[in-house]
Amino acid sequence: MSTIANTIFSPELAARFDKLATIYPLRRSALVPMLLYAQDEIGYVSDEAIAEIAERIGIYELDVRNVLSYYSMLRTRPAGKYNVQVCTNISCMLRGGYEILDHCKAKLGIGHKETTEDGLFSLEEVECIGACCWAPAMQINYDFHDDLTPEKVDVLFQMYKDGQGKDVK
Amino acid sequence: MPSLVSHPDEVKVLSRRFGMGATDIDKYVELDGYKAVQKAIAEGPEWIINTMKASGMRGRGGAGFPTGMKWSFVPKQSDKPKYVLVNGDESEPGTCKDHVIFLHDPHAVIEGTMIAGLAIGAKLGFIYLRGEYRYLLKIMEKAVADAYAKGYLGKNIFGTGVDFDIITQTGAGAYEVGEESALMESLEGKRGVPRIKPPFPAVVGLYGGPTVINNAETIAAVPHILLMGGEAFAKIGSERNGGTRLFGISGHVERPGVYELPMGYSLRKAIYDVAGGIKGGKKLKAVVPGGSSCPVLTADEIDVGLDFDQMGKAGTMLGSGGIVVLDETVSIVEFALRTIAFYQHESCGWCIPCREGTDWIKKTLTRVHAGGGSKKDVDNVQYLAENMMGRTFCPLGDAAAMPTLGFVKKFRKEFEEYIEGKRVGTPLLQIKPVGEVEMAGAH
Asked: Is the model's pLDDT at A159 over the cut of 80?
């Protein structure tokens, strides 16, 4: 009963969701992964995605929203094509995390949780991403970049602009 | 890509296969992989648990609970299925050891999960990685698929008639989910709020079934312990603290990195020898020794052994093994503010002392930091933190209160001087007018 006739997702993702709904002792365990994978495909968790996921899991949309609002990586509005997440937590802060964040703000001309006009980049100050020994660090979408300097950030932004950045999904 | 580091004082047990291509299943097998699980099947649950007990292995997530004992608490008979849950939600600031394990030795996590399952009589294990670790999840997913393809997972593993399945799971951004009961809630597709204990997970856990929850590092050590023997592992470490552990040394050191050191190794040597001393020849000011929730140690308190008991005696904790080193330029006022801002952001709001306490401490320290503080503020911060301790469902409240108390008690003079206008060190935080401090908490 998990297969959806008019899915809003790509055939690949829909097939993946069909399978996800069957592997757990309780179907609801698929909820958080589904929300994240839906966001990976659409760019955010849209109302339509919430409705379909609720149907796939067999719970109310309200329950989906309740869970969605808890997790910091999930968003209900679009971000940039490349979401730049700069860690400023203690280990990164000690090695220039705020300098990197300021540099990103200046370079992209946007602030925390904002998106550039062309929709290419968005910026987020995030909590510890588990790269403390290689600080300062950031993630662009899911790709880790560490031992950062402002110069290295410039090179990375140019790479992504040129379509040569890694896009781990 | 995180770079690997090395030092002659390291004892490589867990990190033995790091950098050797062990993500490839054939390479892993060549390096003694999947031998321990076959031995475990042959010897049986009692032998596994006794070996783990003899190893002196204590949980590497931070609490330091003896692993063998934890496994022995799971009832032998159960109407509901039992589960193994591997906690790879690694999100304690200063901690990146599981990152390296998933990156270099994913099959050790799989094998350890299987052995834990055999020990307690579970047929299904979950490996939960924090959402940010997507590239590591990919590595784990491939490793699991390869293990299925070889017949090491699934029905009738190694032709022994034993069944075992593993599901990998992603989180989606939440520090709180690293707490074991919140982790179960998250895996059940809910908000990651903690459950009240008792009942403990060993009795009523995931989907209501008896569940063993172990940190990824603990699990990755299991195959090594079974192969080398519990006593041999115990002997590497210090008294009541078996073996080695992965210490992530970060902050103001010359050679930050994840190093595998014997339990009980000197904190001073870890900073000055292993990690190469303080960056740029500066002076040491303080150390947060086991992730951000551990009370700070001052520069003259570092002659202490890195194990659960010695760190406890020193008034702090071994925690997650994330050693954060602060040089003389750091303002403790700033550092304390950044630390509490994190906990305020991550508090799930379930328990009032944590929700309100973290928020008011952050607000008060923000005012102090912005230059509008009074000495009474320092008292208030201490009062708030003291009243959070032990008054919440899960340890997040304590995790926020403990470092705060450490900072205001050990560096009270610096707080008071800051309030009087005497500033120490280089400002690292962006200074904004009160009420407009823009940190990650602002959403």
From this structure: yes
Peptide bond into B433 cis (omega under 30): no
- Substitution target in A88, A90, A95, A152 with the highest count of B β-carbons within 10 Å is A90
* Superfamily of domain B14-236 in the CATH hierarchy: NADH-ubiquinone oxidoreductase 51kDa subunit (3.40.50.11540)
A interface test, pick of B428, B429, B438 with most A CB neighbours within 10 Å: B428
Query: How far is the alpha carbon of A85 from chain B, nearest alpha carbon, in Å?
Result: 10
Search chain B and give the residue with CA nearest A93: B428
Domain covering B244-327 in this structure, CATH number: 3.10.20.600
Domain edges within chain B: 14-236, 244-327, 332-419
CB contact under 8 A, B132 and A36: no
In whole numbers, what is the pLDDT of chain B averaged over residues? 95
Quote the percentage of chain B above a pLDDT of 90.
92
Confidence of residue B430 (pLDDT cuts 50, 70, 90): low
> Which residues touch B39 (CB under 8 Å, ≥6 apart)?
B226, B227
Q: Count CA atoms within 13 Å of residue B305 on its CB side.
A: 15
Between A and B, how many residue pairs show a Cβ–Cβ distance under 8 A? 171
Q: Which amino acid is at B330?
A: V
Tens of pLDDT along B236-289? 999 999 999 999 999 999 999 999 999 999 999 999 999 999 999 999 999 999
Q: How far is A67 from chain B (nearest CA, A)?
A: 5
- Whether A121 and A105 have beta carbons less than 8 Å apart is answered as no
User: Hey, where are the domains in chain A?
Assistant: 11-68, 82-161
Residue B338, helix vs strand vs coil: helix
Distance (Å, whole) CA B203 – CA B238? 31
- What is the spatial distance between Cα B337 and Cα A59, in angstroms, rounded to a whole number? 40
Higher pLDDT, B51 or B350: B51
Pick the residue with more confidence: B437 or A28? Answer: A28
Any idea which fold B332-419 has? de novo design (two linked rop proteins) (1.20.1440)
Q: What is the pLDDT of residues B141-194, one digit of tens each?
A: 999 999 999 999 999 999 999 999 999 999 999 999 999 999 999 999 999 999
CB nearest to A71's CB, from B167, B173, B338: B173
Give the integer Cα–Cα distance in Å for B85 and B392: 23
Q: Assess whether the region A11-68 and the region A82-161 belong to the same CATH fold.
A: no
Mean predicted confidence (pLDDT) in B398-426: 94
Shortest CA distance from B258: residue in chain A: A133
Termini Cα distance of chain B: 30
A82-161 carries CATH number 3.40.50.740:
no
Yes or no: domain A11-68 corresponds to CATH 1.10.287: no
Which chain A residues are within 8 Å of B167, Cβ to Cβ?
A: 23-24
Per-residue pLDDT band for B429 (boundaries 50, 70, 90) equals confident
A28·B133 Cβ contact <8 A: no
Q: Which amino acid is at B179?
A: E
